[in-house]
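Everyone, describe these structure tokens:
***
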Amino acid sequence: MATPRSPFDGTAGPDPDAAVYVISVAAELTGLHPQTLRTYERLGLITPGRSGGGGRRYSARDIESLRGIAELTASGIGLEGVRRILDLQHHVQALAQRNDELLDELRATREALAQALSQRADADRVPNKLPVLRSPGTSAASSVVVWRRSR
């Protein structure tokens, strides 16, 4: 993922997961009361970082999550409903990530199979002079059977 750039100096912007906003700033940015933020944390809807002294620090991603929670509650969804929606969103994200991993693995497996088949096709073009090592599908007339007489 590309790092956001500051429009002012061309340098990289802050990490969206960097916990930099104190609770009063987070409350102002989201339009929520600080006590509401504490309640959301207590209910497990949000998990802000902590400073060395134990104060809450919110990241830009936390601010976006809080705005989403505020939209859901403003539309009439209760906090348990919000919790369930957030759990389902996290589950969908995890499944999408796993699906991407499986697609990458499938792509790599298909490439390896194509390469192996290509190498085998190249090897099949060279005549094999040992009858026991001929590839399957050769005529039975040219097959050799080896056995040992039991005593």
Summary: The two ends are 73 Å apart (CA to CA).
